[in-house]
Design brief:
Length: 125
């Protein structure tokens, strides 16, 4: 059975998808972009500020569903420019200080709303 996860503490979906779906002890979080849910605006601060906002959005969704960063088993990071990888990685790493999840990172031609980073997440209990 699948359960739709929604929290006003993270940006609302900008298309026909859910913030997250929980099924069989797994949580699938849709790609999060650096939109501040309080203002509806893209976070300032370049790749560092944008990655920080993305990780905050993921944190809120994890908590809403009863999960934590320690439960994350896989992340996929999408970057508008691979030159931003090191700075994104530095911020991302702060959230996974121990036992980080499996991960892939790709440079893509474009991301929604022209953002620099999008991260999707899978967690498991």
């Amino acid at each position: 059975m699948k359960k739709v996860i929604f929290t006003a503490g993270a940006p609302a979906a900008i298309g026909p998808y859910s913030q997250a779906i929980e099924a069989n002890g797994m949580l699938f979080i849709s790609g999060q972009i650096p939109v501040n849910p309080e203002t509806g605006k893209i976070a300032d601060g370049g790749i560092t500020g944008q990655t920080e906002q993305v990780m905050k959005n993921i944190d809120v969704i994890l908590k809403e569903a009863g999960y934590a960063f320690a439960d994350v088993v896989k992340s996929t990071c999408l970057l508008s420019d691979m030159a931003n990888f090191a700075d994104m990685n530095a911020v991302y790493g702060k959230f996974y200080a121990e036992n980080p999840p499996a991960r892939a990172a790709y440079a893509v031609k474009g991301l929604p709303l022209g953002v620099m980073v999008e991260i999707e997440t899978i967690a498991m209990k």
